[in-house]
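2 proteins. here.
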Amino acid sequence: MVVEDMPMGVPGIVLQELLSGVRSEAEFTRLKAVMDGFPLVLAEPSDHVSAARIANACVWKGVPTSTVDCLIAALAISRKASLLTVDDDFARMAPHCGLTLVRVPRGRGV
């Protein structure tokens, strides 16, 4: 997507998740520098309401979700964007909330 110069954004909560998973300050600094190159997509109050609706829709269908994943899905849906993911949780959620996915084959990385 970067090579093809496709428009992309990173949800703020994803940035937080990425930076929270590093092993050292040096890794944190390098990753933050890379992520600074992408526009940040911040949640609006309506995105939180939509995330709650997504969570409810999934629960009612027996699909487990997390609060964070529901917010990420809501951000993508409200901005009419596809979500690039390797996380199977989003594939289970998508049929119940209208989320459009771009899947990365396992082993190829993002």
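next one coming up
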Amino acid sequence: MSTPPPIRPHENNLVTASVTDTGGWKRVAGTVREPISYFNKTANNANWAKAVANVDASASLVFSYMFYMDSYNSAHSHVDKEGAGAFRKVVNIPNSRSMFLLHLVRFGVTVSNRIFSTWFAWRAESDGSFTLAFTPLEDYDDKERVAEMNALVARDPLASAAISAKSRGFWRFKPLAPTVCEITYVLQVQLGGTIQKQLLTVRTKLTLGVVQATKDLFERKGAVVDAEVRTAFPSPPPLAELNDEQKAIVESCRMLEVESGVTKWTSLASSSPFVDMWMKHTPPKRGERSVAIGKATAVIDCPVLEAVGESSEASASRAAL
């Protein structure tokens, strides 16, 4: 959307309220080595889920793909999941950043169908990211328009007989490079009625599957994507521009290399003739852990920023493992 309408106060309030995060996320067991990071938590007596992944396309393109729900692909996907004739209606609000999605979800013969009526609104952030927030339709400020949407549901036999369900959360599309972005999907679902927690968990996992589907849709060659991310790596700020906390971190890292007393660097046998390695070790006191610090130096045939980007990416990958 090259010239979007100004964001309205109630749309801005929805986005701001949706992205408020108090932390407490725990990685889902058994997903550490997956290309998508999955998390969950319980807050205010509600279960929340989150998925984070890198997608090989620009933040604006992936955001547009997710916001434009009135597409053949989205409609066809709904039929695949819920069956032919399952109610689905997308309503774009003119001159706004809002959209409504009304859709039926089928759970099978023994569990009642659910009807979701959801309001979506988006905002462009100062860092180039896009946030797409969503909440139950009842939160929309124009109650006459809400009544019109409820009337659409009431006219469909299956949808009108379904139990009302609610979902809230947000999508965040953060640029990492011109054609690479990080997407974050945060979701909380209330299915209403009496339903087993196990079934709710299964449905939430299926919903989070859209992150994997989006990643697969835009997937390109890894080497090309890595090169783009390294090229787009931002120049670090000068030391003088750091705040006190950042300066303290830099200084603590510098002190790791300082020799004092018995903590001197000892040369190590390197597995490469082009890399020099050292170690220093402070003898622990009784009850303390034995800790050693390693150091390696080498000459690399690439620009400084490219090396910094590559090392940061490698460090992040090891931390995830």
